[in-house]
Amino acid sequence: MNGPAAFTLSILMLAGFLLGGGGLWLILKRNDYKRGWLMIVAGTVMFANVAIWTLPTA
């Protein structure tokens, strides 16, 4: 994988971790369940996108 694509996937992974952590913080500390779960789902979608893009092709 070339440089710009690897950089983009790295940024997506970091954003996924931050969204997941922020979602947990919203749920546990602020009792904002709706936004917290939406952030966790968005982070999970980012992880799924990275997994799809890094799968080997046949």
Can you characterise this structure?
- The structure is a single chain.
- With 58 residues, the chain is mostly helical.
- The protein has one domain (3-54).
- The protein has two helices and no strands.
- α1 runs antiparallel to α2 (33-54).
- The longest helix is centred in the N-terminal third of the chain and has 27 residues, at 3-29.
- The two termini are 16 Å apart.
Can I get a quick summary?
This protein is mainly alpha-helical and 58 residues long.
Outline the fold blueprint.
Blueprint: H1 3-29, H2 33-54
Name the descriptors:
single chain, 58 residues, mainly alpha, 2 helices, elongated
Beta-strand percentage range = under 5%
For the largest beta-sheet, the strand count, sense and barrel status come to: none
Q: Give the structural class.
A: mainly alpha
> Regions with pLDDT < 50 over 5+ consecutive residues?
none
